[in-house]
Amino acid sequence: MLHRFLDIYSPSPIARSLVLLLFAGAVVLLANNSPSAAIPILLLVWVNRDRFLATVAALLDRRAWLVVALPLLVVVARSAWPLPAAPDDLLRHIAVAFWEGGYPAMYTGTDFPAAGLYPLFDAAVGALARASSAPVAMWITQAGALALFAWVLVRGASACVAGHPNAPYLVSAALICTLGATLPRIAMARPEMFVAIWALAACLVRTPRQTLVWVGAGALMNAAYWLSPVYFPAVILMHRPLRVRVWSFVALSACWVAVWLWIAGAELLATMRWQFMSMTGWVAGISVGENLSIVNALGLITFWPLLLGAVWIASLRSGRTGFLWLALWFALSNQIRYVGVIAPLLALFVLSGLPRRDFLPGAQARLAAFASAVVLAASAMLPLHRYAELPSFTLPEGAVVFTHFDEATYSLPFHNLGRISVAPSFALGALDTTLQQAVRDLIAGRLDCETLLRARFTHVVERTLRGAPPACAELLEAQGKWRLWALDRAPAQRARTPAP
C-alpha cells in the first residue's frame, strides 16, 4: 500500500503529490532545525529502497564529490536559517569602527592599552560594515570562516586518504565529526578562528610558491591577532624540508616582532602586559567560559570518534605524527577555546594513518555510510546563536549602559553604532574592580544602585534580577529574557530620605 502511494517513480498524480508533500515537510522541519526532518526522507527511501538505492549508489560512484557536498549542504542550511549571529567578539570588532575614539569610547570603566590588539581584523570587518551594514558584515565574515574551514579540511583530508577505496566517505566522516565539535566556534568568526584555519592550511604546503604564500598570509595574520605566534608551530605540518620549516618559523616570528613594533612602538611591552593582566584580573566569583578546561570537549558527542580514532591510529604508529604533536601543543593550554583547531588536527591524524583496506564493501554499506553522514549533519550539530535572540534595545544618544558579561556586552554596541558606552568591556579583568563586583552582584540577581549611579550609568540591561524592582530603576522594555531599565537617581535619593 505504501509503495503504491509513495513511489517516487510513479506517474500517478496522487503519488507525486504525496511525495512532494513529504519532501516539503522535510524542508520545513530542516529549516526549523528539527532532527525529525530525517523521518519523511527515510520513509521515502525505505518505500522505494530497491530502485532508489541502486540509483543513488550508481550516482555516488560516478559523482563521488556528492558524498562530501550533500552532508555539508545540510550543515550550511541548518546554519543559515534562522539567521545566525556571533554572540561575542565579532560584534565588537565590527562595531568599533563607528566610534572615533575606538574601544575606550565604546566601553567605559576599562583601561585600554595604547595600541589595539586586532588592528587589521578590526579595519577589515569595519570597512565591510561601512560598505554594507553591521549585520551583513557579520554574516559575510561567518560564511567566510565556514567556507575556508571546510575547504582547508576537505583538501587536507583528501590528501591524507588519496588512493583509499573509501576516500570520499572518510573525508565526509571527518568533516561531519569535526563540524559537529567546532561549528559554534567557527560561527563566532573571531580573529583566532581565521588564524587557526591558516595554521591548518600548512598541511597543504608542498612547493616553494605555496610556502611563500602561506608565510605571507601568516605575516598578515600577525596584524589581525596579537597572539598569532601560538599558531606558528604549524610549520611542522608543511610538506617541506626541515630547513624550510625552520626558516618559515623564524620568518613568521621576525614578522610578528616587526609588525608589532610598528603598531605599538615603545608601548609594545606595556600592550602585551595589559593583555595578560586583563586575562587574570577578575574578582573572585567571576569566571570566563573561554577558560574552561579542554576536558569539556568530552561532552561533545562528535568529538569522541576523533579522540578514539586518534588513540587507535597512535597505537598502530601509522599516522602523520605532526598532526598529533600540534594537537597536543594546543591541548597544553587546557582551554576549551582551542577545540576549534584540536578537532580538525585529530581528524587529519586519523585519516593519515588509516589502513588501506575497504571498510565499506558493497553498495549497501556505502549507502549506509552516506545516509549516516546526512543524518548526523541534520541532527548532531551543536546549536548556534541566532540573530533574533540577541538583545537589540535602541538606546538614546550618549547612554551609558551596564550589563552582564555576556551577549549584551557585545550586542548593545552592535545595535547602537557610535551612540552609547557600555560596561563591562570584552576585557573583564581590566574593568574597574568596583564595577567587577557590581557585575558579580548582577549575575547573582542584585543591582548595586549606589555604585552604578555614582559611576554615572544611565541604563541597565540584564536577565537575572529577582524580587521587587530596584528603587533606582524603571523598567522600559523587555525582549525575551532580557530587560532594559532606566536608572533614576531621584527615586533612590527619596528612598534614603527619612519622612518629615
Task: Explain what this protein looks like in three dimensions.
- It is a single chain.
- The chain is mainly α.
- It is about 60% helix and about 5% strand.
- It is built from 22 helices and five strands.
- α5 packs parallel to α10 (about 165-190) and α6 runs parallel beside α19.
- It is globular.
- It starts with a helix and ends with a helix.
Q: What characterizes the major β-sheet?
A: 5 strands, mixed
Summed up, the helix count is 22
Q: Which bin fits the share of residues in helices?
A: 55-70%
Strand segment count: 5
Helix-strand category: mainly alpha
The parts where pLDDT drops under 50 for at least 5 residues are: 492-500
Shape: globular
Task: Please trace the helix and strand order, writing H or E for each element.
Answer: HHHHHHHHHHHHHHHHHHEHEHHEEEH
In what range is the share of β-strand residues?
under 5%
Overall radius of gyration:
26 Å
What is the rounded distance between the termini?
A: 87 Å
